[in-house]
Amino acid sequence: MNMDPKINERTDDELVLLFKSGSSDAFEELVYRYKNSLYQYIMAMVQDEGAAGDLFQEVFISLFKHADKYEPRGKFKSWLFLTARNRVLNFFRDRDKLASLDQTDEEGNAFLHDTLPDGQPSLLEELAGRETEEEIRRASLELPARQREMLYLRQYMSFKEIAQLLDRPLGTVLADCHRAVKKMQRILAEEQPAAREVTL
């Protein structure tokens, strides 16, 4: 089959439909489109390069085998990340150390008045120019798993998409992200005496 010269201009749903029709180029484009964001999300959760690589491959093997089950409704990204999240949960269950991603932390409810709307730079994007990648990674490891997950998802999804993916109320997602931001600020301020304001 000849390479579609505009394959990278296709929507996710169009690519899935092309793949269902036998286009390997469409599948390769989907992998290329999401490989970085998906791997970073999985790695952030499992903190093991070998396991992250295995889980990443499992997600796309599942897509390859079960693409026919996907209903093209413009939510492929959420479908893909949900598949990845289920793989992560299985990874922890299989090792009898399920880190409760639904666990709340000790900080209680937070006010949401300074949470920025969708379309603003994410926390990790804001930090990228201020801290090294290693400093950000170390700081994120001090967050509860639930909050760390929120921050990494926020790089690629709107708050509404995250709420749908995790099957949680939008307000809960906003509160969790807000708490994560504040905790990251404190962690980084302790490491760097001059505290900086960071937005979500």
Automatic annotation (TrEMBL):
Q: Name one GO biological process term.
A: DNA-templated transcription initiation
Which keywords annotate this record? Answer: DNA-binding, Sigma factor, Transcription, Transcription regulation
Leader sequence residues = none
Q: Where is the RNA polymerase sigma-70 region domain?
A: 30-96
Tell me if Membrane is a UniProt keyword of this record. Answer: no
Outline the extent of the RNA polymerase sigma factor 70 region 4 type domain. Answer: 134-184
Classification via Pfam families:
Sigma70_r2 (PF04542), Sigma70_r4_2 (PF08281)
Q: Name one GO molecular function term.
A: DNA binding
Show the NCBIfam families listed in the entry. sigma70-ECF (TIGR02937)
The family annotation for this protein states: Belongs to the sigma-70 factor family. ECF subfamily.
Q: Which protein are we looking at?
A: RNA polymerase subunit sigma-24
- Which species is the source of this protein? Candidatus Avelusimicrobium gallicola
